[in-house]
Structure formats: structure tokens, C-alpha cells
Design the sequence.
């Protein structure tokens, strides 16, 4: 499919998905969400892709959902069961491979929420995060009130949601909103470096490890531990487990096949 609002590049097992509406600071309209969903489905099903990076490039990640499009929306429009933003976010969050958000400049509102569906966030030192929806008379409806407190704790999340203020990359790092801050001109390189590191691991183990963390967060500890144990046991049926342990004993790097 030809995309108009995103760019998808695949190289050496890493898919880079770049938001591409620079004139409106990559504001996320329905077309972006439809295209993100389509690209995420395709990448999820492509066994040659091991890791996905989502970025807005080196200037801006995304300044939020498209306010021009939202301004005239009715409650019925917003509550549609086929909500394109929820579908796109669900597909990215549940992608059976690691997703890294590489964030430069503004990551606001729906843009910040998009970064939250990634597994890991790397921020450029010029990044600014915020959930300014409250200033528009709404609330962060792209998962911000749910994913942010789970990531950084309810108190800090409420401060960001209630105040609507922006925080810089170093503060985002200190509260655990991002994993790492890098110089802006090294954002793409650093994201690819991390993606390459993940891509070298066994794809089945990665998929199940991600599932254990994501699904475990929805369970109580005992249920989560049981789920983890099932996934752990399952991995002993894979060639990658045999290869990983054999390689260790033979003191050589493992060559995982993803099966
Ligand atoms: N929507 C539409 N257009 C936007 C948006 C946006 N969110 N952000 C910026 N733009 C446009 C501006 O209108 C402007 O267009 P034009 O040149 O035609 O006037 C262009 O981008 C450049 O923006 P500015 O001139 O405003 O640039 P500044 O550098 O002066 O300011 C800011 C940058 C501070 C980022 C400012 O643009 C701003 O405050 N933007 C809005 C931020 C915001 O409120 N975001 C939250 C939106 S609500 C939301 O995301 C709800 C999500 C929940 C549900 C959806 C699921 C994802």
C-alpha cells in the first residue's frame, strides 16, 4: 500500500515508520491512524522484520491529535466502535516484536500517547513531552490516563494530566517516561543501535517476553507468574533455546533462527 502520511522503510530486519505531516508538526488525523494500523499489521506479519522503530524524524515526533479534525467532531463521531486511533494503538502495542519510539521535539497529547504504546522510548535532548488535552477542555483519550500512570505512577501522571504542562527530556528520563536521552543528531543512530541489539535475540523468546510483561501487567502477581512459567516452558520446545544454550557452552555467539 502507498502511504501519504507516513513513510515505511525496512532495512536489515528493522522497520522504521516515520510520521510525515511536517506542516502540522505531524498532527495525527484519521488518515495517519488508518495508515499506522495498516503498516503495523503488515510489519507484524512480516517475518523478515524483527524490530520496529516509530519516529517523527529529527525535528518533531507529533504535536498531538489533529485539533482541526477534532474541533467539529460530535460525541457520536468520537465514540464510534471503529475508532481508528484505538485500533492503530492496539496493533502497535500488541505487535509481536519490539517497538522503539525515537522521539525528537514535541511529543504532545496523542503524540505522547503514541510513544507510550511503544515498548521503549528513546528521546532526543530537544524532546518535550506533555498531555495538554486539559487545556482544550478534554482529557488524554489515547490511553494517557491509563498507560502513563502504569509507567510512571499515578501521582506524577496526574500532575502532567491536570496541569497540561510540557516537560523536557531530562525530566522525562528522571520520572521513567523515557529509557534514554541522546543528543538530537544521534537519535536515529541510537534507535537503530538498540533495534539491532534486540534483532540479534531469538524472535520467539522476544515475542513471549513482551507478552509476559504486557499481559502480566493486566493480571495479579500469581496469575502473572503462572503465565510466565507457561511461556518459559514453551521456549524449551524451540530450536533457539537449544542453539542459545549450546552456543553458550561452546563459547560462541548464538545464531537464532526464530523458531
Ligand atoms: N493539530 C493540528 N494542527 C496542529 C497541531 C495539532 N495538534 N499542532 C500544531 N499544529 C499546526 C499549527 O496549527 C500550525 O499550522 P499553521 O502553520 O497552518 O498555522 C503548525 O502546526 C505549526 O504550529 P505552530 O505555529 O503552533 O508552532 P509553534 O512552534 O508556535 O507551537 C506547539 C508548537 C506548542 C506544539 C503548538 O503548535 C501547539 O500547542 N500545538 C497543539 C498541542 C496540543 O494541544 N496537542 C494535543 C492535541 S489533543 C490530543 O492529542 C488528544 C488525543 C486523544 C485522542 C486521540 C488519540 C491519539
Sequence:
Amino acid at each position: 500500500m502507498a502511504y501519504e502520511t507516513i513513510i515505511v522503510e525496512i532495512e536489515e530486519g528493522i522497520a522504521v515508520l516515520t510520521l510525515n505531516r511536517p506542516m502540522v508538526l505531524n498532527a495525527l488525523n484519521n488518515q495517519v491512524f488508518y495508515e499506522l494500523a495498516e503498516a503495523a499489521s503488515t510489519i507484524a506479519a512480516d517475518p523478515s522484520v524483527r524490530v520496529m522503530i516509530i519516529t517523527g524524524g529529527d525535528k518533531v515526533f507529533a504535536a498531538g491529535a489533529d485539533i482541526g479534525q477534532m474541533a467539529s467532531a460530535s460525541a457520536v463521531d468520537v465514540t464510534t466502535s471503529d475508532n481508528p486511533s484505538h485500533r492503530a494503538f492496539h496493533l502497535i502495542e500488541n505487535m509481536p516484536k519490539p517497538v522503539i519510539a525515537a522521539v525528537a521535539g514535541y511529543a504532545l497529547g496523542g503524540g505522547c500517547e503514541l510513544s507510550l504504546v511503544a515498548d521503549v522510548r528513546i528521546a532526543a535532548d530537544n524532546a518535550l513531552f506533555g498531555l495538554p488535552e486539559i487545556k482544550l477542555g478534554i482529557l488524554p483519550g489515547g490511553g494517557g490516563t491509563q498507560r502513563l500512570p502504569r509507567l510512571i505512577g499515578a501521582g506524577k501522571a496526574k500532575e502532567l494530566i491536570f496541569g497540561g504542562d510540557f516537560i523536557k527530556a531530562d525530566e522525562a528520563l528522571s520520572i521513567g517516561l523515557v529509557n534514554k536521552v541522546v543528543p538530537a543528531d544521534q537519535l536515529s543512530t541510537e534507535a537503530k543501535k538498540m533495534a539491532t541489539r534486540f534483532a540479534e535475540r531469538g524472535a520467539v523468546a522476544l515475542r513471549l517476553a513482551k507478552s509476559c510483561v504486557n499481559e502480566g501487567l493486566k493480571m495479579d502477581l500469581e496469575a502473572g507468574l503462572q503465565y510466565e512459567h507457561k511461556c518459559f516452558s514453551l521456549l524449551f520446545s524451540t530450536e533457539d533455546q537449544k542453539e542459545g544454550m549450546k552456543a553458550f557452552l561452546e563459547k560462541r555467539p548464538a545464531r537464532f533462527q526464530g523458531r
Observations:
- The chain has a mean pLDDT of 96.
